[in-house]
Write a structure and sequence with these properties.
The complex is a heterotrimer of chains A (307), B (255) and C (285). By secondary structure, chain B is α/β, with parallel strands linked by helices. In chain B, 37% of the residues lie in helices and 23% in strands. Chain B has a six-stranded mixed sheet with strand order 6-7-8-3-9-10, sandwiched between helices. Chain B has a four-stranded antiparallel sheet with strand order 2-1-4-5, with helices on one face. Classes of the chains: A mainly alpha (307), B alpha/beta (255), C mainly alpha (285). At the B-C interface, helix 2 and helix 4 of B face helix 6, helix 7, helix 8 and helix 13 of C.
């Protein structure tokens, strides 16, 4: 029984990790908390749903399948990436230009997220939408006494692939090197010939794409797509990135998996009503004891503590 | 009695010992210089004395009180004022407004007085503004008193910092590279002001790179290198000390 | 004419309460503390007040004092762990606080009524109470702003290192800001409870957090009129833009972005600064 919960926890955790990856990436390079990340994720789910069954969104008739899931998935990632770029251009770049504070960036991202949520609310007319039955062929397997669904395997697999891809990008390509240079010291990187604007655009694209992927996976996993679906994940993302270390990609994954485990285990063994309180208390404690997290991030000197 | 004394002060950052066994004394009415090549530990000393850094060992005595463990604001309230290497002013506020912030420690009237709109609160505010204006006269900036601090020259901004520090009515004034980047004329003008402050009884600790300035102005010199004291005494003698000369040979400090 | 005015009275009551919450947010931001804990303090104060009357039978006036005390105490307590954090980490920590309060108030059903909340709170607070409250609060905050405390807040916000070097104990003033913020939010929360008839935990979540923050961002976090103007603008928006009734979030969001990008100090502070600059410019000539 415990093993089953652990397995479930790891799957839930992998989604948390995927969501947090984009979030921590932007923080690591740009040093801002992008509070619009949740709404980009939500739009990824919407785009995926529109691609798979447009009628379910635009009309209220029976959903006729349109595009296959893999294509929809890629479109969702693409759409998320584009939204990410738009966010950078409209919400963050103007602030960078005048050397604004972290506070300003946070507020700007809140504003952007409100706009995105509002648009989705109108599009969905505040309904809760679903991926049509059969979008993902659901099968159950018995493995070492555990009951695992094909969807769970798919989710875990997607996250693993995307994570590996991100690591490759960051540590094996010249683009990635530029990203890391900007993360450590933007001015020095500029002097070395790196174009920071290009780096920011890339980062926001990747962050948005990852969020979009997470959105589709969440929509499939919980069989629900609604205009506020990204917000709880955003809250969870805070816990993940503080636990894992702001800006640390590996940290986001490790902490995400850990959080998934904690979430599932507290719901099952303690109380579902208190799981939120427990998780955020962990966050609070972490901020007091070790705010820099378990891993050092892309950015090494985060100004966290006084003095 | 020395206004400030450190006894075997040391500070360790992880494995690195930035400052070791530093003992110095700053006497009232004198300008004491603390000099040394880059990275010698001068700014660490300032931060230790003002409480921004916690000492790893040793003591700091202000008069007869042990201030080693005090917080920076407590140290400031006792009467130790400092200026910063990089100017930290409120660019948009006027010169006067910047100086008046320095009077905070002396504010008697608080919330209650303001709540009841007591004349005492307004009177005090006027008193501080007048005192700030007097300072601008002393520093030859009376005409610029109402201009935004950010619009003035570097030399003027340094003076504003000085005035703000003096508003605290300190017994010890810590000057962290106050004439960096100034030409000789400006530097000497400021030096004359330091001299008059010392003559009025203040203890002044001057951290500087500019050798000529320091030798001409200071009554006592302490030379640090790699976190340790290598010489101390009157400038004439210290500057001829072979260890001091050797310490500076590898450095490109301006002579 | 009076008919038109009467129609807007509920709006006015609601706006005054929003203004109270905005002031709670304003106090911490003015002191340079990046806290968004207001919604959490408000929840604690609201429930405390309502429960004191409903369960212990205290008269609303006394319960309101209870709201104030609970809010202030929460603020004071929260300031202790938060003294070591800065910037976004303060924001995250206070956000976690709001979530914890929300979560716990949903959970302890026997006390708070859980998700269904509390119903049947006596409507002891009328509009004229609220008007007096706002005027008194305005006066208190104006006096605070002009006192040495206000100046210390300003110094701490503008440059902490300098403030400390000038003898201002930033830790203590931040703690004071938290306590004030908690007290104001708690008391306003109590007023909210006794004006509304019912309380639900979700009223004190992200929406309230954003609304209070938006009001201060819009209006300004230095001048005491900032939160007033900010709240007024937010309250009037749905009335002015009747056609966009559905797109309320969208308008809020766009407004937030536009203001933070082009008018970062907020409406009132930017206006004040421009006016002073003009006066000074004239004086210099």
């Amino acid at each position: 029984m415990l093993a089953q919960q652990v397995a479930n926890g790891l799957v839930v955790g992998s989604v948390y990790a995927l969501f947090a990856l984009g979030f921590t990436l932007v923080f690591g390079v740009h040093h801002v908390l992008n509070l619009a990340h949740g709404s980009v994720c939500m739009w990824g789910a919407f785009i995926g749903l529109i691609a798979v069954a447009p009628d379910s969104v635009f009309a209220t008739g029976p959903a006729t399948p349109f595009l296959p899931l893999p294509v929809a998935f890629l479109l969702a990632m693409l759409g998320g990436g584009v939204l990410g770029v738009l966010l950078d251009l409209l919400a963050f770049r103007p602030l960078r230009k005048r050397h604004a504070t972290e506070f300003a960036a946070l507020v700007s991202s809140i504003g952007a997220s409100l706009i995105l949520i509002s648009l989705a609310q109108q599009l969905s007319q505040t309904r809760i939408l679903r991926f049509p039955f059969g979008t993902f062929p659901l099968q159950f397997f018995r493995f070492a006494g555990l009951r695992i669904s094909s969807l769970q395997i798919f989710i875990f697999g997607c996250v693993a692939v995307l994570f590996a891809g991100l690591l490759f990008y960051l540590y094996r390509t010249s683009f990635g090197r530029q990203v890391r240079a900007v993360a450590v010291n933007e001015r020095a990187a500029t002097l070395l010939g790196v174009n920071p604007s290009a780096v920011y655009l890339q980062i926001f694209f990747i962050s948005g794409a990852l969020a979009g992927a997470a959105g589709v996976l969440i929509g499939l996993a919980f069989n629900s797509v609604n205009f506020l679906m990204g917000e709880p994940y955003l809250m969870r993302a805070f816990v993940v990135v503080v636990l894992g270390g702001l800006g640390s990609v590996t940290g986001a994954v490790v902490a995400g998996l850990l959080l998934g485990l904690i979430q599932v285990l507290t719901v099952v063994y303690v109380s579902s009503g208190l799981s939120d309180a427990i998780i955020f208390s962990i966050l609070f404690l972490m901020l007091l004891v070790r705010p820099t997290g378990l891993f050092a991030g892309l950015r090494r000197d985060v100004r966290v503590v006084r003095g | 009695m020395a206004t400030l004394r450190t006894e075997s002060l040391s500070k360790r950052f992880g494995g690195v010992e930035a400052v070791r066994g530093l003992t110095l004394a700053v006497e009232p009415g004198q300008i004491t210089g603390l000099i040394g090549p880059n990275g010698a530990g001068k700014t660490t000393m300032v931060n230790l004395i003002t409480g921004m850094l916690k000492a790893s060992g040793g003591r700091i005595l202000f008069g007869t009180s042990d201030i080693t463990a005090l917080s920076p604001s407590a140290v400031a309230r006792l009467g130790i004022a400092r200026t910063f290497q990089n100017i930290r002013l409120l660019k948009e506020a006027s010169v006067l407004e910047n100086i008046v912030v320095g009077f905070h420690c002396q504010e008697q009237t608080g919330l209650l007085a303001n709540l009841l709109g007591l004349p005492a609160a307004r009177r005090e505010r006027r008193r501080f503004t007048a005192a700030a204006r007097e300072l601008t006269v002393r520093f030859a900036m009376e005409a610029l008193a109402d201009r935004p601090a950010g619009t003035l020259s570097y030399g003027h901004q340094r003076r504003i910092e000085m005035m703000r520090a003096l508003a605290m009515r300190p017994s010890l004034l810590l000057l962290d590279e106050p004439v960096a980047g100034m030409n000789d004329v400006e530097a000497n003008e400021l030096g004359a002001i330091f001299r008059s402050l010392a003559d009025d009884g203040m203890a002044v600790l001057l951290i500087e790179h500019n050798m000529r300035f320091v030798t001409a102005l200071c009554d006592t010199l302490y030379v640090v290198s790699s976190g340790q004291m290598i010489a101390s005494g009157p400038p004439g003698i210290v500057m001829r000390d072979p260890t001091v000369i050797a310490a500076y040979l590898g450095d490109d400090a301006d002579a | 004419m009076t008919g038109w005015l009467l129609a807007y009275l509920p709006l006015l009551a609601s706006a005054i309460l929003d203004c109270g919450f905005a002031f709670s947010q304003y106090v911490v931001l003015r002191a340079g503390v990046f806290s968004v804990a207001t919604a959490g303090f408000a929840s604690l104060g609201a429930y405390a007040g309502a429960l004191l009357t409903m369960r212990l039978g205290l008269p609303p006036a006394l319960s309101l004092i209870g709201s104030l005390v609970v809010g202030a105490a929460a603020g004071a307590l929260l300031s202790i762990p938060l003294a070591r954090l800065r910037g976004v980490f303060q924001a995250i920590a206070t956000l976690a606080f709001v979530q914890i309060v929300l979560s716990v108030s949903l959970f302890v059903e026997p006390v708070t009524g859980g998700a269904l909340g509390l119903n049947g709170i006596p409507q002891a607070v009328q509009l004229w109470h609220l008007v007096i409250f706002l005027l008194v609060l305005l006066y208190l905050l104006h006096a605070l702003g002009g006192s040495s405390i206000g100046r210390a807040f300003d110094a701490a916000r503008q440059d902490e290192t300098v403030a400390v070097a000038l003898g201002i104990s930033v830790v203590r003033y931040h703690a004071l800001a938290f306590t004030l913020s908690g007290g104001i939010a708690g008391f306003t929360g109590g007023l909210y409870a006794f004006n509304r008839y019912s309380l639900v935990p979700d009223q004190f979540g992200f929406a309230m957090l954003v609304a209070s923050l938006a009001a201060v961002v819009l209006g300004g976090r230095i001048s005491v009129l900032g939160p007033v103007v900010g709240t007024a603008v937010l309250a009037l928006l749905p009335e002015l833009a009747r056609g966009f009734a559905e797109q309320r979030y969208l308008l809020h969001g766009a407004l937030l972005m536009l203001v933070i990008i082009f008018l970062p100090d907020g409406i009132v502070d930017t206006a004040k600064f421009r006016w002073r600059g003009a006066v000074r410019g004239n004086a210099a000539h």
